[in-house]
Protein 1
Amino acid sequence: MKKVNRKKPVNKGYRIFSIILSILLVLISFFTIFEIYSMNVLTPMLTVMVIVIFILIDAILILLLIFSAKKIISKILFSILTIVVTVVFALGGFYMYQANSLLNNITTSEGDIKNTVSLIVLDDSKYEKLKDIAGEKIGTLKSIDTYGTEQSLDDIDSEGVSVQNEKYDSIQAEVKALYDGDVQAIVLNETYRGTVEEIEDYSDFGSKTRVLHETVYYTDRVENTAKSVDDITSHAFNILISGNDTYGDLSTVSRSDVNMIVTVNPQTGIILLTSIPRDYYVETECDPSFGCQVGAMDKLTHTGVHGVETTQATLENLLGIEINYNFRVNFSSLVEIVDAVGGIDVTVEPGYAVPVLRHGGGRGVTEGVNHLDGELALGYARERYAYQEGDRQRVKNQQQVIMGIIDKVTSPSIITNYSSLMNALGGAFETNMSTEEIQKLIQYQISNSPNWTFVQYSLDGTGSTEMCAELGNAAYVMIPDQNTVETAKAKINAVMNDESAASVEEVSVSG
């Protein structure tokens, strides 16, 4: 009687399973290798090594899976091992895909600039709908944001609502007319809301008024061209970090609340952080097509209304330097990035503890080392009223936050937060640094692991009340201390020329 072999169907099923699993492993390995190669952050030698390692792992697993597995235990063991490796490779490929998408996203500014103009009434007024304001007086600005005002009036008219237009020379005069009852509503670009609330007499503007109607229109995005260096890993360069005072979408036009020039020298490992107070009284420099008032004196923060290019040109003019790249972020960006890296550590000096930060969600900071999450980091970076030095201390806080983020991003521990960081960075900021340049910087960090040395400097000045072009009236400003302006210029040039910023002593303009 012939003996029946009952193991053949099992062996045949396992053979089909092992072949399918092997093909899947190879395909996923190819995908991951392709993403690593496309990201271009490893040196050519490291890239070759990674490819060889992938091939060896695949070959060993396939040999074990198809040819060496004879018994049930070995088949199960090799199958589980191959599945685990396949999943790990798949996750790695997905992370690399995220990283590649991120680089393309932050270096490609797409879409138009969003502008929002509001029709604002007093909160206790009788007006509930747009039609209720028909026939009433509304205040508009005579020479400030004329295009936005025109868009709002056309929008109101398209709704079949006719109003009486009262024109004012300044934002302060317009708001005063609303408070005094001379007009029943005002047309105001939301960009200027923060400016109004900073005026002592109208600090309650947010709670005392409400938006009756909103007009949203879009303007073309101006090409943000970088002044690239030849080799970003061997030549020093300047970056402008411009922080907008808004939440949400980066496409919204806004004031530049944070203005910091980061001078990076890859050869010496020095990173100089130079902060310029937001209220610095400067001469506006820009392309007239941006809608700005070229040559007019204004607060630095107001230059952001006309784009990061205007802020950059104004600072180049102030310091007599060339800024190669710019990064634009906003409040939401900072919160998301800090949370994504697992929080940052800052050291609060004795006497500078703040029990409750104005924007810290009811929390504060204590003397010594503090671990900050995103919301607390934003509150710490925005605080100024709690300090006797005001904005001078705030820029120091901002420098601490920037250093904390850089420290986390360049540390090995970032691997554990890689996925959340990729999700947070997508759309969190914009830059005119090219994808290739960012890849080279990452490659340089991985290959050389440089020990970066941070140097901090802040421009200073004296408080005054001067006419601001964007407001149409006088407001608090900081008159630049030319000694600090020249010292900042000298320190930046020193770092750019492979020297130490610390070697530059305080410059005295008077000699």
Protein 2
Amino acid sequence: MEGMLRTGTELVSEGKNRYTVRKMLGAGGQGEVYEVVCEGDKKHYALKWYYKHTATNRQKKILDKLIERGKPDDSFLWPQDLIRRRKNEPFGYIMPLRPKHYKSIVDLMKRKAEPSFYYLCKAAYNLTQGYRMLHKAGYQYRDISFGNVFFDPKTGDVMICDNDNVVPNGTLDGGVYGTPRFMAPEIVRGEKKSSRNTDLYSLAVLLFYMFMLNHPLEGKQEAKIRCMDIHAMNRLYGTNPVFIWDPKDLSNRPLAGYQDNAIIYWELYPKALKELFIRSFTEGLTEPARRVTENMWLSAFSNLMSGIMICGDCGAEIFFDKYKEENDIAHTCWNCHKEIKVPSKLVIGKNNIILTSKTKLYTHHILGNYDMNTVVGEVAVNPNNPAKWGLKNLSESSWRYEKSDGTQVPVKQGQTAAIAKDVSIDFGEMSGHFE
């Protein structure tokens, strides 16, 4: 594959680093991407080299600011070095190279990536956390879509690329407005420009694709379209958008035999997640200020990860649904259709943590800080009596264990508290009880 830069071309960055072009990886609307190796550390990086018409002074200023301020968190393949040969000629930037085992959302839809439900939720959590940190730093992404997100199906780790169009929130100049099908209705209609609120809409579309493998607005109305031209797209995504699962408007329901993914997967998830999607694509279509925030998504995904049950008959992952428990509706395995008995669980605030021999307690559970990586506790099984389980304190603080008779016992770091119904634990910031 030939491009603007030949294999073996040597380039010197503004940071005085020397890079050698190894091969071309691909091309897009703004430029070409190459694999390069740095002479200094011998590591391989990616180089995005702009076409002449996209190598504008405005783009360079954006890159200068991004490199100066640095990445919001480790999930971003952030610009880190700028390469410019001569003034008024194409330039490019260096970013980390994406590992080959990371998959795209398109791979997920084509079944080329099949993560477990747990790691799908973990990927959604990490993705949302990345955009949360981006927005917290005062940026807007402007182009959340399929092509900019990759994930590891075995760990749920994510990588967000194409960050060269990130700008401070509130920036009103031209440039990127988004990708068709992902743009907020007000952008499609030409009423607004990109913002954090339009990012939230695009994020909701991407999350819906991840969980339902279907676009949230593509149901019966999309099936009727014979020519998906600009006018049809404007109606479907801008002037007349209708959520396929809108509880009040049934006109755009998915069609069996055509949009089966939307029908099948919608039934697998707890009501709490479905309510967030309903809000995103009913109120959120017309009221940008009422769109689902990153924190709302993070709370939902943490509960999804903590509430996974395993079917004892077929081994399928089943989500605990608080709504079903409150309304005395049985949990049924989606795979073998047998009823699932809900295991013991630890309830901390709105978190329902299903207790299995592999359950871990994270900082978010006891502090509400959206940290689902730092382990502060884990289920421990008594080696001499497998029927006896406990919760081991792996945090740096002592817990207070309160028995059903009111007796209180401290649980220091490394100690284990017995899991028993109607017993509670004071973790400091929050308290929980076993059910």
